[in-house]
Amino acid sequence: MSMSDDCFLRSELLSSHGAIGIFSSRHGGISPPPFDSLNLGSGLGDDEGNVAHNLNILTSAASLPRTPHRAIQVHGAGVLVCRNSGDQHQDQADILIGVDGAAIAVRVADCVPVLLADPEAGVIAAVHAGWRGTVAQATIHAVKAMVRHGAKPEQIFACIGPCIGPCCFEIDTNTANNLSRCCDGAHRFIHHVDNETYADLAGINARQLRCAGITQAHIERISECTCCDEQRFYSWRRDGKMAGRHLAVVALPDAS
Ligand SMILES: [Zn+2]
């Protein structure tokens, strides 16, 4: 495995249907500890020059057609529509919709990144869904926003990336109640061990994709736990304020 392969995981499903979907790991960047090494989050204490350089490393390693758009994330279900070449926006949004060849990205460290593409319609989406975004049905709203821009649910492919797993995501009773009611069948992804309650956030987001009309065969899950694998991933639950950030990026290659 080359260093460039190591700095991200690729969605095979999106890849095989003509889209680019990648999830950065913490490898291959230049940030020193505790942000070692491919930190893609600004304002955390890492040098901003390092973060900008890391983004260039990822863009080049993953052969992204252009720099991805990014927004200010607020754990909601707001939508930002992006076109053409990307930048860091000052708009607040946890759902980015890409049209006209845009590349789009969300930042995560434990939260669920969901990447969607309708290559036929030329519409893509990136979703940042922690437990609050999951309760707000961000993933369902993303599919609806794609449809408003010409996508068809039956043509959409989705990949759920690395996030905190049901092994590590312990939640309180209030969060469990909110999550179990957030979509049809969500309660099946809450489990109890002794007196503790755990949620499978990726499982609930997969349910939301089904609720939004995406067929099971069009949903891929990369079931790696960010909290368990310290060597490979940043984790807010594990590292708190010292946690770097990953980027999940989706794009459509330029027509040739
Ligand atoms: Zn875990």
Main sheet: which strands, in order across? 4-6-9-8-10-14
Per CATH, the superfamily is CNF1/YfiH-like putative cysteine hydrolases
Low-confidence stretches: none
| Count of discrete domains | 1
Work out the helix count: 8
Cα-atom Rg, whole angstroms? 17 Å
Structural class: alpha+beta
Distance between the termini: 29 Å
CATH overall fold name: CNF1/YfiH-like putative cysteine hydrolases
Shape estimate: globular
Ligand roster:
zinc ion
Helix content: 10-25%
Can you identify the CATH class? Alpha Beta
Order of helices and strands: HEHEHEEEEEEEHHEEHEEHEHE
Percent in strands: 25-35%
By CATH, the architecture is named 4-Layer Sandwich
Give the overall average pLDDT. Answer: 96
Structure description:
With 256 residues, this protein is of the alpha+beta class. The chain has a single domain (3-164, 219-251), classed as CNF1/YfiH-like putative cysteine hydrolases. The protein contains eight helices and 15 strands. The chain starts with a helix and ends in a 5-residue tail after the last strand. Zinc ion (ZN) binds at residues 165, 167-168, 225, 227-228. Zinc ion (ZN) is lined by residues 165, 167-168, 225, 227-228.
Attribute tags:
four-stranded antiparallel β-sheet; CNF1/YfiH-like putative cysteine hydrolases; binds zinc ion; 256 residues; alpha+beta; six-stranded mixed β-sheet
